[in-house]
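Pilot study result, target chain (218 residues):
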Amino acid sequence: MNGGETWIERGGERLQLLAERALWWPARQALLVADAHFGKAASFRRLGVPVPQGTTGRNLDVLSGLIERHGARRLLVLGDLLHSAHAHDAPDTLAALAAWRAARVDLRIVLVRGNHDDRAGDPPAALGIEVVDEPLRLAGLALCHHPRALPGAYVLAGHLHPCITIGRGFDRLRLPCFHFGPAVGVLPAFGAFTGMHPVRPGRADEVYVVAGEVVRRV
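Predicted structure:
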């Protein structure tokens, strides 16, 4: 394993993998995240399932720190910004998003629609989020939600919430990871209240695990 800053090159672009489960693209001054699933906890509580509160605020605090640290001018969301249509009826979630957005009116936000976005509907227009269908082609990259190869570009996607298991027996630990294949790379889920799906990397794949405050290749 190696620590320190973790950089990769895909589609002719230099990208930094961040322990906050995000990706920094300095050439575009862009921060990339996938699968925030805002409103998921509220949706579960609406169904009578007792789940933690405050996940929206924690996610937004992390985003704020990343934007300030890197001087990001763009936020590119690779699908599933809102978890379900119930998010539109969650006043606390919407109020938190509106207040956060109002403090960052100069930040350009682009959402590449994912499967949950299709069901939830586009975010409220007042949030000033540009919404597009996949793929969003920028330079040598194609930004998508669903991880599938496309000709002429390296695909960055979300959807799978990838993780990897470290250790054995009672010492096993599941950790989120970045999973890069020859033609498609998948970001870990950004949201604090999301599930994870184990990856099975191929011989030509690279996996970078998020371990505390560092990202390490395994």
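One observation from the pilot: Confidence is low (pLDDT under 50) at residues 47-51. A full batch analysis is planned for the follow-on phase.
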